[in-house]
Amino acid sequence: MITQKYVNELTHTIIGAAIEVHKELGPGLLESIYERCMGHLLLEKGLHLVSQQRVPLYFRGLYLDCELRFDLLVESMIVVEIKAVDGILPVHEAQLLTYMKLMEKPKGILINFNCTNIFKEGQKTMVNELFSQFPPGF
To answer: Which domain covers residue 46, as residue numbers?
Structure first.
């Protein structure tokens, strides 16, 4: 059974992996490089993930075949959006929330590798109403 505790522990693992990648590579590289390194590290940790898949987009019953793609989906549950920008902006948060909604996923993590400290300033975790439907799982 999936619990909030499990999802939070998974979040901790993902953010830990981002910190590892950032410590090794530092800021200043392309998002695609961080994405590949994150994917490699998460696979090493035994997690299931997919990357750069299309986000399903339906508008009034019509499926729109568009180039809307997420960066990483970990354990079919957490959407990870990777950035290498000056700072996390509201539009980045809105993008992640929209992906979570369209993909029907309970949690998302926005990670910005262009920072000095991933934990303090380079990540933002977001949940939606789906997360609250999981039991706490103390």
So the answer is: 4-131
Taking all residues of the chain, what is their mean pLDDT, rounded to a whole number? 95
Please indicate, yes or no, if residue 48 is contained in any of the structural domains: yes
Alpha carbon 96 to its chain's center: 8
- For residue 14, the tally of other CB atoms under 10 A from its CB is 26
* Helical axes 4-25 vs 31-44, angle rounded to 10°: 120
pLDDT in tens, 45-97: 999 999 999 888 989 999 998 889 999 999 999 999 999 999 999 999 999 99
Tally of structural domains, the chain: 1
Q: What is the CATH number of the domain that holds 85?
A: 3.40.1350
Of 111, 127, 137, 131, which is closest to residue 42 (Cα–Cα)? 111
